[in-house]
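Hi U.,

Before I forget, here's the chain from the pilot set. I'm dumping it here mostly so it's searchable later in email.
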Amino acid sequence: MEIHIDLSRGRGYRDAIYRQIRAAILDGRIQAGEALPPSRELAQRLAVSRTTVSAAYDRLMAEGFLQARVGSGTFVRAGSERQSATSGGRVTEARPLAEWDDVPELPAAFAPAPEFDFRAGVPDLSRFPFDTWRRLVTRQIRASRADLLTYGDPQGHPGLRVAIARHVGVARDVRAGAADVVITSGAQQTIDLVARVLLRRGDLAAVEDPGYPPPRLLLTTLGVRPVPVPMDGEGIVVAEIPAGCRLVYVTPSHHYPLGTSMSLERRLELLDWAARHDAVILEDDYDTEFRYTGRPLEPLHSLDSRGRVVYVGSFSKVLSPALRLGFMVAPPSLVPSLVKAKYLSTWHSPNLEQAALAEFIDEGGFARHIRKMRKTYRERHELVREVLLRDFGGVLEPIPSDAGLHLSAYATRDPRDVVRAARDAGILLYPLSWFSVRTPRPAGLVFGYGALPTARIEPGLARLRALFGEPRDTA
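Structure:
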């Protein structure tokens, strides 16, 4: 491997080579088993004699750091390295902005999957259409399309924007053309781009409470002041939104985490509020492909006649979060600035995956996958609800919901101690209080069933039920 050697400090070349290679081995930058450059090659690169390099190598071998293999080269001996210190022991005096102090540690969503995985928002990745996806990606590679290997359009792959506009137009009644679609790496980047384009430091932005924490935390790091607004049975309480808010983030079709849907009357009220206060609504329609009863609800976007709604979609829940592909449908007046913001942040999303996804949608594979997974998730949704009603009476009360990848339940007491005990028992799930900043925080649990096979749901819930003990007598 290439090794950086600094010979500019005026000391002997042999000692400098020896000391710097030794230091690189000790702090782990060069690891056991790695080959050093041949002495002749390193000597030519450093413009020193080969004898100088060989003498440094010989000393390192004598001290046990290196070993020579006849006909193969010079290698780092196993056991000669030690753990590297962070940043080589250097400590910067610069401190992050205070806003980052409020961001908690990364959530358990990134932890290894437990025995019983009830984490919300995680799809069943074992059902990912691997064979079809492999074929589509291979087709793009075999076509030897050089345009997929260069910098892409910040707005997104043209074919994918056309496919998405057609899909949301048919499946969700979102009237849009390809020019209105901007491809992102997911809902979180969409929120980031919209906030950067529309909001200044100190501006107010309304978020649901309880609600999905990452958007609120992201807005905080941008210097925006998120305002938690309470929820009721019909959705966000519009009357509680401060008049100065310039942005409202909502999950109206399937609220995260309560699972309820915003009523038509509340949707119209929110649209009217946004028009009167010159605000923009971010409508996160994150998993409404999976609706199990009743007719699909009209998105805010389809009810909006005044260009107040940015419709947010993602493929993380439907296909895989690892694809890092999402999109927004934005009013024409915002698109140019949003594209510039995308260019300045990540320039473009992966071209190869975008092209493959466009074909997946156009060939009907996306719609077929949704239909297949809707049946699977419906079975799990009904099973979780049935078991909660049957076995958790007196401790949990399921919240009515008919869509998505999770089901929430109110608890008769604060269940955070149960959540901690459940983690020790191999069960991972979220408390409802984790999603709220207002007090008193709601007591309850959120049951994700996307990542847990159907046959594992009842055993997992049985183990969880034992942790609650007997229900308290409330008479």
